[in-house]
Write a structure and sequence with these properties.
Structural class: alpha+beta
Strand content: 15-25%
Distance between the termini: 34 Å
Oligomer: single chain
Helix content: 25-40%
Largest sheet: 2 strands, antiparallel
């Protein structure tokens, strides 16, 4: 299905291999080999004519890592930040820079913040409790 217009297409435009990195196993890096097919959008009024099939929960557009590895590295980045997170990822078997660790953390959605406080907030006092969930 075309991600822009939502029209299903059966017109395959060849195939090629992708090699997204996955979560390491036993300290050794794991790389998947996926054969993906680009399709041609049958809606002629679109600016983007070709698109590549994605496997939900595994790959994303232009992604070099699987979603599992992205979420693992983002969790490491949340816990340890840049340089320490990159060092810990290296121990796990993933070669990654500190900038990439921080970029993965920055790409996470903002947590919802709920404020509780009651009367203290009405009197413009700062007695609110912030809950992040």
């Amino acid at each position: 299905m075309c991600p822009v217009c939502g029209v299903w297409s059966n017109r395959v435009h060849g195939s090629y291999l992708r090699f997204p990195a996955d979560v390491p196993s036993g300290g050794r890096s794991a790389v998947l080999q996926l054969r993906v097919r680009p399709f041609t959008c049958e809606n002629s009024g679109r600016a983007r004519r070709t698109f590549v099939e994605q496997i939900p929960g595994l790959t994303r557009r232009h992604g070099q890592r699987t979603e599992r590895l992205r979420s693992t590295l983002a969790a490491v980045g949340l816990a340890l930040a840049g340089r320490a997170g990159a060092g810990f990822a290296r121990v796990l078997g993933v070669s990654i820079s500190r900038s990439t660790v921080l970029r993965l953390v920055d790409a996470l959605p903002e947590p919802e913040v709920a404020r509780r406080g009651g009367a203290g907030l009405r009197r413009a006092r700062s007695t609110a409790t912030v809950l992040a969930g």
